[in-house]
Amino acid sequence: MREKELRALMKDLGLNEYEVRAYLTLIKRGALTAGELATLSKVPQPRIYDVIRTLMSKGFVTTSGSRPKKVIPVEPARVLDAMKERYEQKISLVREELEKLYTPIEETETVLVVKSKITLEDYIKKAIQNVKLHLSIAAPLPIIEKFGEELRKKQKAEIHIFAYGKGDVPKVGRTVKIREVGDPLIVIQDRELGIYAPYDALTTSGSSLYGYALIIEDQNLLFMFDRYFYHVLWPTGKTIYHEERKLELPREYLRIRELVEDIKNFNLVGYKVEVFGKFVKTRKTAHITGRIAGFFESEGKVISNITIETFNGKRYVVGGWNSSLEDIEAERIILKGR
Fold first, then answer.
1. Is 65 in a helix, a strand, or coil?
2. How far apart are the first and last CA of the chain?
3. Partner of 182 at 20 to 30 A CA spacing, among 130, 239, 274, 285?
4. What is the number of other CB atoms lying within 10 angstroms of the CB of residue 178?
5. Contact criterion met (CB below 8 Å) for 261 and 337
6. Within 13 A of 1's CA, how many CA atoms are on the CB side?
7. Cβ–Cβ under 8 Å, residues 164 and 143
């Protein structure tokens, strides 16, 4: 190892430049007077006594009792072993104290904080490209316009658009609403990905957000944002476009509300359905087939469910996301025909 590298390592151990010079000079030359040490190590004379005192306090040197007094280097192995022991004691003490203060946090990695507009827009694009059945977007009009072409490619999915601002909104969803007053940006893709950003976060002109945006995969948070979208935002917008589609079977539903709407519009009582989900009480996997025997929709569509009669005569009330009053929480429902 070159002396330059050795000097750098010694500095990593807590010695300054003058202390390194003095100690290296001593282990090469042996015991020296303060004057001799200053000359040979090139440590300024006014500083040499301070350097000797700090080296003594760190255990690198000692002094003789003879006259003239000499500075004597301590054997390197003894110095470093003593340093190692002191360091390990400090580490142990700090660890003990930190353990007392530490509160364990479960790392779910289901919420990501982003502060870049570019990153936020990348996630919005990803949500649109990956949608299978359902997409809800509430965003300023320029963002809806920016992703218009991506949204047009996904017209087989159920897409609901809520734009903030004034102007013509691209007709790129099953239902499109607008409101002049802004609110948070919210994107919910199937039950897999959610995006949230406070309205103020989008007001900057640069590439950074004012504050933050959240990328969410936690199911409970996604459900809360879904409720906010449909029960707080959705009723306040003006509908400017709604596609009256034809019923093409088989059709797959992620949301019970859309199925109930189609049951009413197309008189689907008696049609065959297949349900995938969980039993509400036991949380065990549920998979049933049968016919639609009835449906229910509360005022304001807060509660929507259907009743299914299986082919062996059993009846189940099937609800949507986070059902608690029904027999089954549906994750997917396939409408098959008569």
1. coil
2. 85
3. 130
4. 20
5. no
6. 8
7. no
Tell me how far CA of residue 282 lies from CA of 12, 236, 303, 333, in angstroms: 60, 37, 21, 20
Structure tokens at 199: 């309205």
pLDDT above 70 (res 271) = yes
Which residue pairs from 47-51 have beta carbons closer than 8 angstroms and sit at least 24 positions apart in sequence?
A: 47/18, 48/22, 51/18, 51/19, 51/22
Q: How big, in percent rounded to 5, are the helix, strand and coil portions of the chain?
A: 40, 30, 30
Closest by CA to 163, choosing from 83, 171, 155, is: 171
- Give the Cβ contact number of residue 97 at 10 Å: 10
Q: Is the peptide bond before 73 cis (omega within 30 degrees of 0)?
A: no
- Report pLDDT digits (tens) over 302-337: 889 999 999 999 999 999 999 988 999 999 999 998
Instruction: Tell me the Ramachandran region of residue 300: left when phi exceeds 0, alpha when psi lies from -120 to 50, beta otherwise.
Output: left
For tokens 């218009």, name the residue. Answer: 148
Report the greatest alpha carbon distance in the chain.
Answer: 113
Q: 29-74, pLDDT tens digit by residue?
A: 999 999 999 999 999 999 999 999 999 998 999 998 888 889 999 9
- Asked if the peptide bond before residue 170 counts as cis, ω within 30 degrees of 0, the response is no
C-beta contacts of 164-171 below 8 A and 24+ residues apart: 164/138, 164/139, 164/140, 164/199, 165/140, 165/141, 166/141, 167/141, 169/141, 169/144, 169/240, 169/241, 170/144, 170/145, 171/241
Which one-letter DSSP state was computed for residue 168? P
pLDDT in tens, 164-214: 999 999 999 999 999 999 999 999 999 999 999 999 888 887 788 888 899
Structure tokens at 250: 């088989």
Structural domains of the chain sorted by starting position, each given as residue range(s) with its CATH number in brackets? 3-73 (1.10.10.10), 111-242 (3.30.870.10), 251-337 (2.30.30.690)
Residues in the chain: 338
DSSP state of 174: S
